[in-house]
Design a protein that fits this description.
With 430 residues, the protein is an alpha/beta fold. It is built from 18 helices and eight strands. Bound molecules: S-adenosylmethionine. S-adenosylmethionine binds next to strand 2.
Protein backbone atom coordinates (compact mmCIF):
# COMPACT_ATOMS: atom_id res chain seq x y z
CA UNK A 1 0.00 0.00 0.00
CA UNK A 2 2.79 2.41 0.86
CA UNK A 3 4.17 1.97 -2.64
CA UNK A 4 1.01 3.53 -3.97
CA UNK A 5 1.96 6.97 -2.87
CA UNK A 6 5.65 6.95 -3.53
CA UNK A 7 6.57 9.04 -6.47
CA UNK A 8 7.89 6.92 -9.27
CA UNK A 9 11.01 8.09 -11.05
CA UNK A 10 9.30 9.17 -14.22
CA UNK A 11 6.09 10.72 -12.89
CA UNK A 12 6.01 14.05 -11.13
CA UNK A 13 2.95 13.27 -9.05
CA UNK A 14 0.02 10.94 -8.73
CA UNK A 15 -3.15 12.27 -10.20
CA UNK A 16 -5.51 12.35 -7.25
CA UNK A 17 -8.01 14.37 -9.24
CA UNK A 18 -9.58 11.82 -11.54
CA UNK A 19 -13.37 11.81 -11.88
CA UNK A 20 -15.02 14.10 -9.35
CA UNK A 21 -12.12 13.94 -6.89
CA UNK A 22 -10.57 17.18 -8.12
CA UNK A 23 -13.72 19.27 -7.92
CA UNK A 24 -12.95 20.81 -4.55
CA UNK A 25 -9.80 21.28 -2.48
CA UNK A 26 -11.34 20.22 0.82
CA UNK A 27 -8.62 20.23 3.43
CA UNK A 28 -7.47 16.82 4.63
CA UNK A 29 -8.81 14.84 1.69
CA UNK A 30 -8.05 11.15 1.34
CA UNK A 31 -5.85 10.28 -1.64
CA UNK A 32 -8.49 8.47 -3.73
CA UNK A 33 -6.17 5.72 -4.90
CA UNK A 34 -5.65 4.74 -1.26
CA UNK A 35 -9.41 4.21 -0.86
CA UNK A 36 -9.53 2.19 -4.05
CA UNK A 37 -6.58 0.07 -2.95
CA UNK A 38 -8.31 -0.60 0.38
CA UNK A 39 -11.60 -1.57 -1.26
CA UNK A 40 -9.69 -3.88 -3.60
CA UNK A 41 -7.78 -5.29 -0.65
CA UNK A 42 -11.11 -6.10 1.04
CA UNK A 43 -12.38 -7.58 -2.26
CA UNK A 44 -15.48 -5.38 -2.05
CA UNK A 45 -18.03 -6.44 -4.64
CA UNK A 46 -20.82 -4.46 -6.34
CA UNK A 47 -23.92 -4.37 -4.17
CA UNK A 48 -21.99 -4.54 -0.90
CA UNK A 49 -22.09 -1.56 1.47
CA UNK A 50 -19.20 0.64 2.51
CA UNK A 51 -19.54 3.29 5.21
CA UNK A 52 -17.44 6.39 5.83
CA UNK A 53 -18.67 7.96 9.08
CA UNK A 54 -16.24 10.92 8.82
CA UNK A 55 -16.94 11.42 5.18
CA UNK A 56 -15.32 14.85 4.69
CA UNK A 57 -15.51 15.68 1.01
CA UNK A 58 -16.77 12.21 0.10
CA UNK A 59 -13.70 10.49 -1.33
CA UNK A 60 -14.85 7.06 -0.13
CA UNK A 61 -18.35 7.66 -1.50
CA UNK A 62 -17.02 8.63 -4.93
CA UNK A 63 -14.92 5.47 -5.12
CA UNK A 64 -17.91 3.41 -3.94
CA UNK A 65 -20.15 4.90 -6.64
CA UNK A 66 -17.54 4.27 -9.34
CA UNK A 67 -17.19 0.65 -8.28
CA UNK A 68 -20.94 -0.03 -8.00
CA UNK A 69 -20.94 -0.33 -4.19
CA UNK A 70 -23.62 1.00 -1.91
CA UNK A 71 -22.36 3.65 0.48
CA UNK A 72 -23.33 5.55 3.60
CA UNK A 73 -21.44 8.73 4.37
CA UNK A 74 -21.90 10.65 7.63
CA UNK A 75 -20.57 14.09 8.53
CA UNK A 76 -21.60 16.77 10.98
CA UNK A 77 -20.55 19.50 8.66
CA UNK A 78 -23.01 20.83 6.05
CA UNK A 79 -20.21 21.83 3.66
CA UNK A 80 -18.82 18.28 3.74
CA UNK A 81 -22.25 16.81 3.12
CA UNK A 82 -22.85 19.14 0.19
CA UNK A 83 -19.47 18.29 -1.40
CA UNK A 84 -20.08 14.59 -0.81
CA UNK A 85 -23.51 14.72 -2.45
CA UNK A 86 -22.23 16.68 -5.42
CA UNK A 87 -19.24 14.43 -6.02
CA UNK A 88 -20.94 11.07 -5.50
CA UNK A 89 -24.62 11.51 -6.39
CA UNK A 90 -24.41 13.06 -9.88
CA UNK A 91 -27.26 11.94 -12.15
CA UNK A 92 -26.88 9.12 -14.66
CA UNK A 93 -28.00 11.52 -17.35
CA UNK A 94 -26.58 15.00 -16.65
CA UNK A 95 -27.68 16.71 -19.91
CA UNK A 96 -30.31 18.99 -18.30
CA UNK A 97 -27.64 20.51 -16.04
CA UNK A 98 -25.90 22.50 -18.82
CA UNK A 99 -29.21 23.96 -19.80
CA UNK A 100 -29.93 24.93 -16.20
CA UNK A 101 -26.53 26.54 -15.96
CA UNK A 102 -27.12 28.58 -19.13
CA UNK A 103 -30.24 30.01 -17.52
CA UNK A 104 -28.31 30.64 -14.31
CA UNK A 105 -25.72 32.63 -16.29
CA UNK A 106 -28.34 34.72 -18.07
CA UNK A 107 -30.08 35.59 -14.81
CA UNK A 108 -26.72 36.37 -13.25
CA UNK A 109 -25.87 38.89 -15.96
CA UNK A 110 -29.32 40.47 -15.64
CA UNK A 111 -29.06 40.92 -11.88
CA UNK A 112 -25.54 42.28 -12.12
CA UNK A 113 -26.55 44.76 -14.80
CA UNK A 114 -29.51 45.92 -12.64
CA UNK A 115 -27.20 46.60 -9.70
CA UNK A 116 -24.51 48.41 -11.65
CA UNK A 117 -27.16 50.60 -13.33
CA UNK A 118 -28.28 51.69 -9.86
CA UNK A 119 -24.63 52.50 -9.00
CA UNK A 120 -23.39 54.29 -12.12
CA UNK A 121 -20.20 55.56 -10.49
CA UNK A 122 -19.02 51.92 -10.39
CA UNK A 123 -18.10 52.27 -6.73
CA UNK A 124 -20.30 51.12 -3.89
CA UNK A 125 -19.75 50.03 -0.30
CA UNK A 126 -20.07 46.49 0.99
CA UNK A 127 -23.26 47.52 2.79
CA UNK A 128 -24.95 48.30 -0.53
CA UNK A 129 -24.42 44.66 -1.49
CA UNK A 130 -25.61 43.31 1.86
CA UNK A 131 -28.74 45.47 1.62
CA UNK A 132 -29.38 44.50 -2.01
CA UNK A 133 -32.83 42.99 -2.54
CA UNK A 134 -32.30 39.26 -2.96
CA UNK A 135 -28.99 39.14 -1.08
CA UNK A 136 -28.78 36.08 1.18
CA UNK A 137 -25.29 36.58 2.64
CA UNK A 138 -25.54 37.88 6.19
CA UNK A 139 -23.00 40.46 7.28
CA UNK A 140 -20.13 38.77 9.11
CA UNK A 141 -17.00 39.86 10.95
CA UNK A 142 -14.35 41.47 8.74
CA UNK A 143 -16.38 40.96 5.59
CA UNK A 144 -14.72 44.06 4.09
CA UNK A 145 -11.33 42.45 4.43
CA UNK A 146 -12.36 39.10 3.01
CA UNK A 147 -14.10 40.45 -0.11
CA UNK A 148 -13.80 43.46 -2.36
CA UNK A 149 -17.27 45.01 -2.96
CA UNK A 150 -17.19 43.64 -6.51
CA UNK A 151 -16.33 40.07 -5.37
CA UNK A 152 -19.02 40.26 -2.70
CA UNK A 153 -21.56 41.41 -5.28
CA UNK A 154 -20.76 38.49 -7.61
CA UNK A 155 -20.95 36.04 -4.72
CA UNK A 156 -24.21 37.54 -3.48
CA UNK A 157 -25.82 37.23 -6.93
CA UNK A 158 -24.53 33.67 -7.30
CA UNK A 159 -25.96 32.67 -3.91
CA UNK A 160 -29.32 34.30 -4.69
CA UNK A 161 -29.57 32.20 -7.86
CA UNK A 162 -28.24 29.04 -6.20
CA UNK A 163 -31.08 29.34 -3.69
CA UNK A 164 -33.58 29.33 -6.56
CA UNK A 165 -32.28 25.95 -7.77
CA UNK A 166 -33.34 22.63 -6.33
CA UNK A 167 -31.79 19.23 -5.73
CA UNK A 168 -28.59 18.29 -7.50
CA UNK A 169 -28.31 21.52 -9.54
CA UNK A 170 -28.26 23.57 -6.32
CA UNK A 171 -25.51 21.42 -4.82
CA UNK A 172 -23.51 21.47 -8.06
CA UNK A 173 -23.54 25.26 -8.47
CA UNK A 174 -22.90 25.84 -4.75
CA UNK A 175 -19.96 23.43 -4.84
CA UNK A 176 -18.55 25.29 -7.86
CA UNK A 177 -18.83 28.59 -5.99
CA UNK A 178 -17.20 27.11 -2.89
CA UNK A 179 -14.38 25.63 -4.96
CA UNK A 180 -13.64 29.06 -6.46
CA UNK A 181 -13.72 30.89 -3.13
CA UNK A 182 -9.93 30.97 -3.04
CA UNK A 183 -9.94 32.98 -6.28
CA UNK A 184 -12.88 35.17 -5.27
CA UNK A 185 -12.07 36.20 -1.69
CA UNK A 186 -8.98 37.91 -0.36
CA UNK A 187 -7.62 34.59 0.84
CA UNK A 188 -3.96 33.83 0.86
CA UNK A 189 -3.79 30.64 -1.19
CA UNK A 190 -0.39 29.63 0.13
CA UNK A 191 -1.72 28.88 3.57
CA UNK A 192 -4.00 26.07 4.59
CA UNK A 193 -5.82 28.11 7.20
CA UNK A 194 -7.69 31.08 5.80
CA UNK A 195 -5.70 34.28 6.09
CA UNK A 196 -6.10 37.66 4.45
CA UNK A 197 -4.20 38.26 1.30
CA UNK A 198 -1.67 41.06 1.50
CA UNK A 199 -3.17 42.85 -1.49
CA UNK A 200 -6.86 42.70 -2.36
CA UNK A 201 -7.83 40.87 -5.55
CA UNK A 202 -8.97 43.16 -8.33
CA UNK A 203 -11.19 42.40 -11.31
CA UNK A 204 -12.83 39.34 -9.76
CA UNK A 205 -15.37 37.93 -12.24
CA UNK A 206 -17.44 35.47 -10.22
CA UNK A 207 -19.58 34.31 -13.14
CA UNK A 208 -16.52 33.51 -15.26
CA UNK A 209 -14.89 31.55 -12.43
CA UNK A 210 -18.05 29.61 -11.56
CA UNK A 211 -18.81 28.90 -15.25
CA UNK A 212 -15.37 27.51 -15.84
CA UNK A 213 -15.71 25.28 -12.78
CA UNK A 214 -19.23 24.05 -13.63
CA UNK A 215 -18.13 23.19 -17.18
CA UNK A 216 -15.19 21.26 -15.83
CA UNK A 217 -17.48 19.38 -13.45
CA UNK A 218 -20.01 18.55 -16.16
CA UNK A 219 -17.24 17.24 -18.41
CA UNK A 220 -15.98 15.23 -15.42
CA UNK A 221 -19.41 13.61 -14.97
CA UNK A 222 -19.46 12.58 -18.63
CA UNK A 223 -15.95 11.21 -18.45
CA UNK A 224 -16.64 9.25 -15.26
CA UNK A 225 -19.83 7.74 -16.64
CA UNK A 226 -17.85 6.60 -19.67
CA UNK A 227 -14.71 5.42 -17.88
CA UNK A 228 -16.71 3.36 -15.39
CA UNK A 229 -19.46 2.22 -17.74
CA UNK A 230 -20.89 -1.14 -16.68
CA UNK A 231 -19.49 -0.79 -13.16
CA UNK A 232 -20.70 2.56 -11.87
CA UNK A 233 -23.68 2.40 -9.52
CA UNK A 234 -26.82 4.50 -9.18
CA UNK A 235 -26.84 7.84 -7.29
CA UNK A 236 -29.64 6.37 -5.17
CA UNK A 237 -27.21 3.82 -3.74
CA UNK A 238 -25.25 6.59 -1.99
CA UNK A 239 -26.73 7.89 1.25
CA UNK A 240 -25.24 11.08 2.72
CA UNK A 241 -26.30 11.87 6.28
CA UNK A 242 -25.69 15.18 7.97
CA UNK A 243 -25.44 13.86 11.51
CA UNK A 244 -23.21 13.31 14.48
CA UNK A 245 -21.84 9.82 13.81
CA UNK A 246 -21.54 9.20 17.55
CA UNK A 247 -25.34 9.06 17.74
CA UNK A 248 -26.10 7.69 14.26
CA UNK A 249 -28.23 4.60 14.32
CA UNK A 250 -27.42 2.27 11.41
CA UNK A 251 -29.08 -1.15 11.36
CA UNK A 252 -27.08 -3.85 13.08
CA UNK A 253 -24.82 -5.75 10.67
CA UNK A 254 -25.85 -3.54 7.72
CA UNK A 255 -22.32 -2.52 6.68
CA UNK A 256 -19.70 -4.71 4.96
CA UNK A 257 -16.73 -2.33 5.16
CA UNK A 258 -15.78 0.89 6.87
CA UNK A 259 -13.12 3.03 5.18
CA UNK A 260 -12.56 6.24 7.06
CA UNK A 261 -10.25 8.80 8.57
CA UNK A 262 -11.45 10.70 11.63
CA UNK A 263 -9.94 13.94 12.87
CA UNK A 264 -6.62 13.03 14.48
CA UNK A 265 -7.35 14.85 17.72
CA UNK A 266 -7.70 18.48 18.64
CA UNK A 267 -6.77 21.11 16.04
CA UNK A 268 -5.20 18.75 13.53
CA UNK A 269 -6.84 20.54 10.68
CA UNK A 270 -9.23 23.38 11.07
CA UNK A 271 -12.02 22.75 8.60
CA UNK A 272 -14.01 25.71 9.84
CA UNK A 273 -11.21 28.21 9.45
CA UNK A 274 -9.97 26.93 6.13
CA UNK A 275 -13.38 27.06 4.47
CA UNK A 276 -14.66 30.10 6.35
CA UNK A 277 -15.75 32.04 3.26
CA UNK A 278 -17.73 29.08 1.92
CA UNK A 279 -19.62 28.74 5.20
CA UNK A 280 -20.30 32.44 5.46
CA UNK A 281 -21.41 32.85 1.84
CA UNK A 282 -23.53 29.71 1.64
CA UNK A 283 -25.16 30.24 5.03
CA UNK A 284 -28.65 30.21 3.44
CA UNK A 285 -28.04 26.84 1.78
CA UNK A 286 -26.54 25.33 4.93
CA UNK A 287 -29.38 26.53 7.13
CA UNK A 288 -27.38 26.57 10.36
CA UNK A 289 -24.09 27.90 11.57
CA UNK A 290 -21.41 25.19 11.59
CA UNK A 291 -19.61 27.10 14.32
CA UNK A 292 -22.19 25.68 16.72
CA UNK A 293 -20.86 22.09 16.57
CA UNK A 294 -19.27 22.52 20.02
CA UNK A 295 -18.25 19.19 21.48
CA UNK A 296 -20.34 17.12 19.04
CA UNK A 297 -17.27 17.14 16.80
CA UNK A 298 -14.75 14.40 17.42
CA UNK A 299 -11.52 16.23 18.30
CA UNK A 300 -13.43 19.35 19.27
CA UNK A 301 -11.58 22.47 20.37
CA UNK A 302 -14.68 23.74 22.10
CA UNK A 303 -14.65 22.21 25.55
CA UNK A 304 -15.91 24.02 28.63
CA UNK A 305 -13.15 26.01 30.33
CA UNK A 306 -13.47 23.92 33.49
CA UNK A 307 -13.39 20.53 31.72
CA UNK A 308 -11.15 18.26 33.76
CA UNK A 309 -8.91 15.39 32.74
CA UNK A 310 -10.38 13.06 35.34
CA UNK A 311 -12.74 10.15 34.79
CA UNK A 312 -11.84 9.22 31.23
CA UNK A 313 -13.53 6.05 29.93
CA UNK A 314 -10.50 5.21 27.80
CA UNK A 315 -8.30 4.79 30.91
CA UNK A 316 -9.87 1.47 31.83
CA UNK A 317 -9.83 0.16 28.24
CA UNK A 318 -6.35 1.06 27.00
CA UNK A 319 -3.19 0.51 29.09
CA UNK A 320 -1.22 2.65 26.63
CA UNK A 321 -3.69 5.51 27.09
CA UNK A 322 -3.56 5.14 30.88
CA UNK A 323 0.22 5.22 31.02
CA UNK A 324 0.61 8.07 28.49
CA UNK A 325 -1.82 10.36 30.27
CA UNK A 326 -0.62 9.46 33.77
CA UNK A 327 2.79 11.03 33.15
CA UNK A 328 1.86 14.69 33.23
CA UNK A 329 2.59 17.39 30.68
CA UNK A 330 4.85 20.14 31.87
CA UNK A 331 3.78 23.51 30.60
CA UNK A 332 0.85 22.18 28.54
CA UNK A 333 -2.55 23.77 29.09
CA UNK A 334 -4.56 21.19 31.10
CA UNK A 335 -7.58 22.00 28.95
CA UNK A 336 -5.73 20.76 25.88
CA UNK A 337 -4.95 17.54 27.73
CA UNK A 338 -8.65 17.22 28.65
CA UNK A 339 -9.62 17.81 25.01
CA UNK A 340 -7.36 14.98 23.88
CA UNK A 341 -8.80 12.69 26.56
CA UNK A 342 -12.30 13.55 25.38
CA UNK A 343 -11.15 12.66 21.84
CA UNK A 344 -10.22 9.14 22.98
CA UNK A 345 -13.46 8.79 24.94
CA UNK A 346 -15.28 9.59 21.71
CA UNK A 347 -13.24 6.90 19.94
CA UNK A 348 -14.58 4.36 22.46
CA UNK A 349 -18.08 5.19 21.18
CA UNK A 350 -16.81 5.10 17.57
CA UNK A 351 -15.55 1.54 18.15
CA UNK A 352 -18.86 0.50 19.74
CA UNK A 353 -20.79 1.86 16.74
CA UNK A 354 -18.49 0.07 14.29
CA UNK A 355 -18.99 -3.20 16.13
CA UNK A 356 -22.76 -2.78 15.85
CA UNK A 357 -22.91 -1.58 12.26
CA UNK A 358 -20.54 -4.18 10.75
CA UNK A 359 -21.64 -7.63 9.71
CA UNK A 360 -19.62 -10.51 11.23
CA UNK A 361 -16.42 -10.78 9.18
CA UNK A 362 -16.75 -7.17 8.00
CA UNK A 363 -13.57 -5.09 7.83
CA UNK A 364 -12.41 -1.60 8.78
CA UNK A 365 -9.64 0.59 7.39
CA UNK A 366 -9.07 3.35 9.92
CA UNK A 367 -6.54 5.98 8.89
CA UNK A 368 -5.12 7.80 11.88
CA UNK A 369 -2.13 10.03 12.67
CA UNK A 370 -0.08 10.50 15.81
CA UNK A 371 -0.03 14.08 17.05
CA UNK A 372 2.13 15.84 19.58
CA UNK A 373 0.84 16.88 22.97
CA UNK A 374 3.41 19.24 24.41
CA UNK A 375 6.79 17.62 23.83
CA UNK A 376 5.50 14.06 23.58
CA UNK A 377 3.96 12.18 20.66
CA UNK A 378 0.65 10.48 21.46
CA UNK A 379 0.70 6.80 20.39
CA UNK A 380 -2.79 7.20 18.89
CA UNK A 381 -2.44 4.18 16.59
CA UNK A 382 -1.68 1.87 19.51
CA UNK A 383 -4.42 3.37 21.71
CA UNK A 384 -7.02 2.96 18.94
CA UNK A 385 -5.91 -0.66 18.49
CA UNK A 386 -6.50 -1.30 22.18
CA UNK A 387 -9.80 0.59 22.37
CA UNK A 388 -11.29 -1.16 19.35
CA UNK A 389 -10.05 -4.62 20.46
CA UNK A 390 -12.15 -4.14 23.57
CA UNK A 391 -15.21 -3.86 21.34
CA UNK A 392 -14.49 -7.17 19.62
CA UNK A 393 -12.74 -5.69 16.60
CA UNK A 394 -9.56 -7.61 15.83
CA UNK A 395 -6.54 -5.62 14.65
CA UNK A 396 -5.27 -7.50 11.58
CA UNK A 397 -2.45 -5.20 10.60
CA UNK A 398 -1.02 -1.74 10.89
CA UNK A 399 0.38 -0.22 7.71
CA UNK A 400 2.55 2.84 8.31
CA UNK A 401 1.49 5.27 5.65
CA UNK A 402 2.16 8.99 5.55
CA UNK A 403 -0.65 10.61 3.57
CA UNK A 404 -0.24 13.34 1.05
CA UNK A 405 -3.36 15.44 1.20
CA UNK A 406 -4.68 18.34 -0.83
CA UNK A 407 -4.46 16.82 -4.27
CA UNK A 408 -0.76 16.92 -4.77
CA UNK A 409 2.45 15.35 -3.72
CA UNK A 410 3.81 18.65 -2.52
CA UNK A 411 5.37 18.79 0.90
CA UNK A 412 3.05 20.32 3.49
CA UNK A 413 5.30 21.75 6.25
CA UNK A 414 2.54 22.39 8.84
CA UNK A 415 1.40 18.80 8.44
CA UNK A 416 4.92 17.54 9.09
CA UNK A 417 5.05 19.60 12.25
CA UNK A 418 1.82 18.54 13.90
CA UNK A 419 1.29 15.01 12.60
CA UNK A 420 4.24 12.80 13.32
CA UNK A 421 3.30 9.65 11.46
CA UNK A 422 0.18 8.07 10.04
CA UNK A 423 -1.05 4.53 9.77
CA UNK A 424 -3.85 2.53 8.20
CA UNK A 425 -5.23 0.21 10.87
CA UNK A 426 -7.04 -2.80 9.44
CA UNK A 427 -9.58 -4.39 11.78
CA UNK A 428 -12.01 -7.23 11.29
CA UNK A 429 -15.17 -7.95 13.21
CA UNK A 430 -15.10 -11.44 14.68
C1 LIG B 1 -10.16 13.95 8.22
S1 LIG B 1 -11.76 14.57 7.74
C2 LIG B 1 -12.21 13.33 6.61
C3 LIG B 1 -11.72 13.62 5.21
C4 LIG B 1 -12.19 12.60 4.20
N1 LIG B 1 -11.49 11.34 4.39
C5 LIG B 1 -12.03 13.09 2.76
O1 LIG B 1 -11.49 12.34 1.92
O2 LIG B 1 -12.41 14.23 2.45
C6 LIG B 1 -12.73 14.32 9.16
C7 LIG B 1 -14.20 14.73 9.06
O3 LIG B 1 -14.85 14.29 10.26
C8 LIG B 1 -15.96 15.15 10.48
N2 LIG B 1 -16.45 14.95 11.86
C9 LIG B 1 -15.89 15.32 13.03
N3 LIG B 1 -16.65 14.93 14.07
C10 LIG B 1 -17.73 14.28 13.55
C11 LIG B 1 -18.86 13.64 14.12
N4 LIG B 1 -19.06 13.59 15.45
N5 LIG B 1 -19.76 13.06 13.29
C12 LIG B 1 -19.58 13.10 11.96
N6 LIG B 1 -18.53 13.70 11.35
C13 LIG B 1 -17.60 14.29 12.14
C14 LIG B 1 -15.39 16.54 10.17
O4 LIG B 1 -16.44 17.44 9.88
C15 LIG B 1 -14.49 16.22 8.96
O5 LIG B 1 -15.17 16.48 7.76
Amino acid sequence: MAALENRSLDSKSWDGNYGPHGWHRYVGRFPPHLVRALLNHFEARPGQTVCDPFTGSGTTLVEARMLGLRAVGIDLCPLSCMLSRTKSKFPDDPRHLSQRFNQFSQHFEGLLAGFTKAHPSGTYPHNAVVEREGNAIPKFANMERWFTPEALLGTSVAVELIMQEEGYARDLFATALSAEMRSIGNVDVDVVRAEYRKTARVGVDVLRLVSRRVKKMLAGIDRTLRSHEGLIGSPDDIDVREENMLSTDLAEGSVDYIVTSPPYGVESLSYLRTHLLSYRSLDAHFKYDPYSFSDDAVGSEYLAADASAAGSVATSLSPTFASFFSEGFDGTDPRRVAMMEKFFDDLVQVGANFQKWLRPGGAIAFVIGNKRLGERVIPTDIIVGELFSNQGLRLEKTVEHKLKTNNSNSEVPWQERIIQNEAVLIFRRA
